[in-house]
Amino acid sequence: MQLNPDGKQRTSLTKVESSPCYLLTVRVIRARNIHQADVLSHTDCYVSLWLPTASNDKFQTKAIRNCKDPVWNETFYFRIQSQVKNVLELALYDKDVVTQDDHLFTVYFDIAKLSLGEEVFMHFKCDSQRREELEVGFALDNISGPPETIITNGVLVSRKICCLEVQVVEKKKKKKKSKKEFSFKVQGSYEGTQDIVLGSGLAFSSSFPAKFHYARYKQPTLDVTLPGKKRPPSSNSHVYDTSSANVELHSIPSGKNMILAEDKRFDLFAKAEDCPDHLDVRLGFDLCIQEQDFLCKRKNYVMPALKKVLQLEQDLLDHESPVVAVMTTGGGMRSLTALYGSLRGLKKLNVLDCATYLTGLSGTTWTMSNLYRDADWSRKDLDKQISEARKHMTKCKINSFSLEYLKYYKKQLCQRKREGRKTSFIDLWGLVLESFLHDGKDNHRLSDQQQAIDRGQNPLPIYTAVNVKNNYSTLDFKEWVEFTPYEVGLQKYGVFVRTEDFGSEFFMGRLMKKVPESRICFLEGMWSSLFSFNVLYIWNLSHSSEDFWHRWTRDQIDNIEEEPPLLVKPQELQTRLFTPPGPLGSALRAVLADRVCIAQEHNFLKGFQMHDDYLENTHFRRWKDTVLDTFPNQLTQSDQFLSLVDTGFFINTSIMPLLKPERKVDVILHLNYSAGSQIQALDQTCKYCSEQGIAFPRVDLSEEDRKKLKECYLFDGAETPGAPVLLFFPLVNDTFQKYKAPGQKRSESEMEDGKVDLYGCCSPYSTYSLQYTEKEYDLLVQLGEYNILNNEDLIVQALRTAVARKRQIKK
After folding, report:
1. pTM given for the model
2. Each residue of 403-416: pLDDT tens digit?
3. Which CATH number describes the domain made up of 289-533+595-810?
4. How far apart (Å, rounded) are the C-alpha atoms in residues 694 and 659?
């Protein structure tokens, strides 16, 4: 049984096992009919080889001058892990002396196509019209030595890592003190480069060695620059000085000191040791132990509440109790305010005690983070919280930009930078939000909310964001990220970290540098990062298609022929050709796809590698929807930082964590606070779930309803096995115009209060409004509450339907 460092059992889906490594031999033979890239001469071709799962370095052949049919016949060797998705990138370049080398094309070849013990010679047909071709030989053989211990969940692989300690021992200390600076580099290690300075009163002893953490089997090399020598201009070069140490680290015996270099002035020693196999991240697709414990405790509140709401004579049995979730959408201060009203309505109906989860994004995360400061907020009426929010919503916001506040913002941003974070305008936005919504500094952190759910007394809050890539539109690349008081993670990869550790630095699943947990205002800024837009997003708001822009922003990737044709298994990738865009295309892509500002946090997936069968993993396939999913070398585990934005930049919904099968959600109360179309986010969710094969109710609304929405719709999902029951509450002003409470008509003097202009051109409730009058605030809260109370019958019907289904499933 494998345990986490805290003694808790790991998920059963995570395996710790021994897996063999193989020797891959790549012989770059020749190319034919390479088109002329230069105007005045033929190409000076060379081939670059990049296999990041096996080596930290890129290798290249020599350049053949002025030849369209170059012959290299050069051989390269790689030690590869058999359970890792190894995709070799063979890039053909035209060498230029003055300008940057021209990138002609790149071939992506999946090593899993090769059979052990066989040698094949491949002809890659790169351009059928010009008859361009690249000829490469491959061989895959067993390799001597013990197998490697890996940890995997079927999508990610954590490999064996080692810690190298480099020691400098000074032999003679001169009377005249002078500095001696040594530079050590292990490319691909967590630390990268470290410098040691001797002399000038600086002491160096065995307790302060230079340390490097690196993947043991990725052909790492220690490069040393001795005092008085210059570092080379190329990051890939290993030759610094003929007398310097340049050591392949696999040659250093584990646990023993080894002399790297001896000099009359100093000695260099190194020692390498294997790091423990336990991980500081959670690899798995099930719920964490803490959430499982919460679910057991929450039932003690949910089951009596359901009995009361449904007016049952007998207690519900454990298997009859449905999992109910309250799901919200964003909408700035409008969503913050309306959510208070919706929750007060649910509280009055006793339905809030029936809920197990509460999810949010953008503006509703501000409401949620305020509520969960009180460990028993849902056990009380919400008048106090609503009154407190009213005070901040109606106050003048200009003071937030005073000189005193600006000095405070600068001090806080400098502190975050000293902690090792990458700060941006999004952090400043979080501080501005703090001043908008609170009096003074707010020290609350997300992990503090564990006190509000430790007895199961409140629904479990889930906050959402999406991880993006700066050169891609959100439609092309986005990955769901969920935040709870217990952990933060990406369900697509099945990797999670403790909430306290989010923002810290990790390597291959091990915690390398602990960074203090962020105050929640910085997370609120990220969850509602209105400033992370790009031109493609703006275009998509007014057009249903990105086809025009994709001509300039999508990579040109084509499947290519290969001889001999190799048998392709389901988990293997087809051989593909990437043709880089020209200068105009690259410039347009930068203009269209780059985002104005983005929140970046240290990537806790850094160093992991993709499992050879990751594309066939059912969990990964459920969320597989980006253009890079079949390019394992370019997925998130290869990035230094996560790039996180407001979920609304894709779909204005926080529903995705609730569709995780392990949460088994039976009823979703969809509280919509979007601007403009109230049905758009729901339609987008239906389309997305249909494409992904996720069970979701069919939204069947008539044209009449779409033109004039009612307060609530029930979609029972009967036509879709496994789909939850969905209650959809658009934010509309329907019967509220004539009724101040369910069944209580307004008097003539009260009719004015029913005129709540939500979306008109002069509406005070714009998404970008920062301040309401007291009356505007009160009316929006009352409207949110009324729309819940006025649809009690539909809520009860949804709960009864879910209970009946649970009973039927048991039978």
Report:
1. 0.92
2. 999 999 999 999 99
3. 3.40.1090.10
4. 8
